[in-house]
């Protein structure tokens, strides 16, 4: 098994974020989200059709845009692209952040503060909204042709002799995701690499499957896959 040691900047923030800082983030989220969500902090709706009005969704999306870009098309590599992402995946991640099941790498504490003020209707509406948006097209990653070819090979075919399964078997041949498996095509390479490292280091406890998938991969292989996916 190859174990990648994350740098201090990738260590979980639960142990390092001061309590007063988290409280300040939560207060900021309340001030921003409460007017937009109205009754979101009240009883949690359970009906599948119970979603927010389009006007309210747009107001919440404006808050998301401060980090994730207009309509989820993030231009900053530390923030994931949400446009075109699978709704089921977005919903699952927001609920995991809300319940503090997901807390592993930088800035997830900020998202916990935000997700804590989203009820099921808001989460469902946001997931559906971002899935409908046009994703970013592939962009050069700065990696060499050899590295990109290796990333493509690993994604499409894997490396069976080392126990590396093809990423496409879950995420689709075009990396567009399927059902609860996320879209990876066009995602920022630095963000993808960080998440792959977090899975390998077991810092995303709800990602048991990905822990197994990344365990036999070398650091160079993780980088190659991430670089290639940004170009899709």
TrEMBL record:
Domain Cytochrome c: 49-134, 146-232
The keyword Metal-binding appears for this protein: yes
Superkingdom of source: Bacteria
Protein name listed in UniProt: C-type cytochrome
Keyword vocabulary terms for this entry: Electron transport, Heme, Iron, Metal-binding, Periplasm, Signal, Transport
PROSITE patterns, sorted: CYTC
Localization, UniProt: Periplasm
Cleaved signal peptide residues: 1-40
């Amino acid at each position: 098994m190859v174990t990648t040691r994350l740098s201090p900047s990738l260590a979980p923030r639960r142990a390092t974020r001061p309590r007063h800082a988290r409280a300040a983030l939560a207060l900021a989220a309340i001030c921003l989200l409460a007017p937009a969500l109205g009754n979101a902090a009240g009883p949690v709706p359970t009906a599948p059709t119970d979603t927010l009005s389009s006007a309210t969704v747009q107001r919440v999306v404006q808050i998301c845009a401060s980090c994730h870009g207009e309509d989820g098309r993030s231009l900053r590599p530390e923030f994931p692209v949400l446009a075109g992402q699978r709704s089921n995946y977005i919903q699952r991640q927001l609920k995991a952040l809300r319940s503090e099941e997901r807390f592993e790498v930088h800035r997830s504490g900020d998202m916990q503060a935000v997700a804590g003020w989203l009820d099921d209707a808001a989460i469902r509406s946001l997931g559906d909204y971002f899935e409908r948006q046009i994703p970013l097209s592939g962009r050069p990653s700065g990696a060499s042709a050899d590295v990109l070819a290796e990333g493509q090979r690993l994604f499409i075919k894997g490396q069976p002799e080392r126990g590396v399964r093809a990423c496409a078997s879950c995420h689709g041949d075009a990396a567009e995701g399927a059902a609860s498996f996320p879209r990876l095509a066009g995602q920022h390479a630095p963000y993808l690499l960080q998440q792959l490292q977090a899975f390998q280091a077991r810092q995303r406890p709800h990602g048991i499957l990905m822990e197994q998938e990344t365990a036999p991969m070398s650091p160079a292989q993780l980088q190659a896959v991430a670089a290639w996916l940004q170009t899709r």
